[in-house]
Amino acid sequence: MSTTKPLVTVIGSTGAQGGSVCRALLADSTFRVRAITRKPTSAASLELIKLGVEIYQADINIASELDAAFAGSHALYALTDCWDPALRGSTDAEFAQGKGIADAAERAGVETVFYSGGPVIDTLPSPMCNAKTLVTEYFETKSFKLIGVNLGWYMTNWVSLFPPRIGKDGKTVEFAYPIFTDTFEFPMVATEIDTGPVILGILKSPNPERFWGKVFYLASEWVTLPQIASAYERATGQPARHIFLEKGDYDFVSGNSEWTNMNLHCVRAGGFAADWDDIPGHWEGNKLGPCLELHPEILTWEKWVKKSGFDMFDPTWQKQLARRPAEWDSQQ
Q1: What is the pTM of this model?
Q2: pLDDT tier at 313 (50, 70, 90 boundaries)?
Q3: For residues 22 and 35, is the Cβ–Cβ distance under 8 A?
């Protein structure tokens, strides 16, 4: 592999976001790709090696390991891992992780840094999102060119976190979420597929300066829960509908009260991007930012259902669904 190509270093390379970035950059072949991982012999790391990724072993919780990891990088795709057991859900710990990344990137002379942050709503009652806000603010003090990327609602969330259920009639697929309005919109994204092509488009843009200092949602569309159910029905031919959950019911669906508080706050605030036009730096006038321009083939929810074969009646998919307490099914 040529060492004259610009080097892009990727954090989270074995996950949905970083893995997509690695694959898209390698398929294009304009850039060299370095993946940061704590487990260079994991199955996911070995798969990246087969594709041509340079694997570098480092722990993003240990700031002293990052200078060498970022050395020679033209660009960095960065995220802070709120699910890391080492952080224990601590805002301070996640901020420290982000600060270490930002400081090392600046010392290494990285020109452009993408930071994958959180929902565009102020004062979320969520340590996860509050930490990302603090990290973003710290990144903004650095000398590198910062581009804020807020991944939208993972389409796989409907499998891994909030799976629909099969109704009492045994044939209708029911999507549920703690919202109290049919107009609440989700910014949908096929993270594992479409993150990379959008980032690649920015890296190859003839005028990258228009992205510097901006924040945008990486999503293909903004859709309501009724629209999500209807799209599933069109894609699969299975009858589907949306149902409402009463306040307090959400915890036993996801098992996570932090998600409950965060999403109820989103509802009260008017949605994930309620204050979009009022917050400096957000992509003005277009909640999808540059996504459709940079990646016209970006998948809608309906197209993702068709492409992935998501099917609530398929035993293979049923095995992947998030575990739910018995009370969920007992309420049918």
Answers
A1: 0.87
A2: very high
A3: yes
